Amino acid sequence: MTSSETVIERLEGGVLTLVLNRPDKLNAFTPAMHDALRAGFARAARDADVRAVLLTGAGRGFSAGQDLGDRDPRKGGPAPDLGETIGRYYNPLIRAIRGLDKPVIAAVNGVAAGAGANIALACDIVLAAQSARFIQAFAKLGLVPDAGGSWALTHLLGEARAKALALTAEPVSAAQAAEWGLIWKAIPDDSLMDEAQALARRLAQGPTFGFGLTKQAIQAASTNTLDAQLDLEQDFQQRAGRSADYAEGVTAFLEKRQPRFQGQ
Predict the structure, then answer these.
(1) Is there a single domain that holds both residue 148 and residue 229?
(2) Is the same domain home to 63 and 159?
(3) Of 209, 216, 244, 247, nearest to 232 (Cα)?
(4) In this structure, are 119 and 193 located in the same domain?
(5) In a 3-state reduction of DSSP, which class is residue 65?
(6) Which pLDDT band holds residue 82 (cuts at 50, 70, 90)?
(7) Residue 107 in contact with residue 193, Cβ under 8 Å?
(8) What distances in angstroms separate CA 189 from CA 97, 133, 159, 186, one per listed residue?
């Protein structure tokens, strides 16, 4: 296990667990936390021993979003350049999560607000404790949803619900989020981490080469035409069919045994 002050890393059974670790601040993001989390996803991208990523938060919340403590207007000085903050920290993080060719599971263990909510929604599979809430808190600050929030809400929920949540900052319970299709499942609080870890281990033992292609294909489908998507499926299936994982999957099926995938 390795850790920084702000993110704990643990690799076990092919699963890289990343724990946001500022529980006294509801895991609000600082530059140091961004750097540590980006380093974790960079490790996931380059390390063949990492087959899946599990992202969660320490303490009673997932993340309250950006730490506003160093942005107090009462201190005077020039207005902060929030565009620079997004360009340097949030956008690269969302691209790293979406671009990783391995499954990323979010276990939302409590409140997920602002950018914290949208970082969770950028993950491939989102499980949330029943007590968790998702809040687009930007409206309370006169800001625009960032960290991919305006994109994720619109694609997952449609324009009507996306606008309502973004403009009202009304909390969405885990159960409601699951019913609407914003996340995959709402889980009893005391079962969340057990189920999230079991899912991450299962995916890590699977054909992760094909999982990576599947992830890319589904993400492309929201903007592709049908013809473009058919061509993409043809190309990706060609690549998957040449993989060692496919050969192992077919061999195991014919030999009536459990496959031993290597992610290649």
Answers:
(1) no
(2) yes
(3) 216
(4) yes
(5) coil
(6) confident
(7) yes
(8) 25, 12, 31, 9
**pLDDT confidence tier of residue 80, bands split at 50, 70 and 90:** confident
- Given 3-state DSSP classes, what are the helix, strand and coil percentages for the chain, each rounded to the nearest 5? 50, 15, 30
Residue 230 and residue 120 share a domain = no
Residue 38 lies in a domain: yes
Q: What whole-number distance in Å separates Cα of residue 216 and Cα of residue 1?
A: 30
Render pLDDT for 161-217 as a digit per residue (tens, 0 to 9): 999 999 999 999 999 999 999 999 999 999 999 999 999 999 999 999 999 999 999
Q: Domain count of the chain?
A: 2
> DSSP string of 164-230?
HHHHH---EEHHHHHHHTSSSEEE-GGGHHHHHHHHHHHHHTS-HHHHHHHHHHHHHHTTS-HHHHH
Domain span at residue 231 reads 208-254
For residue 264, is it within any domain?
no
- Does pTM top 0.85 for this prediction? yes
| 261 lies in some domain | no
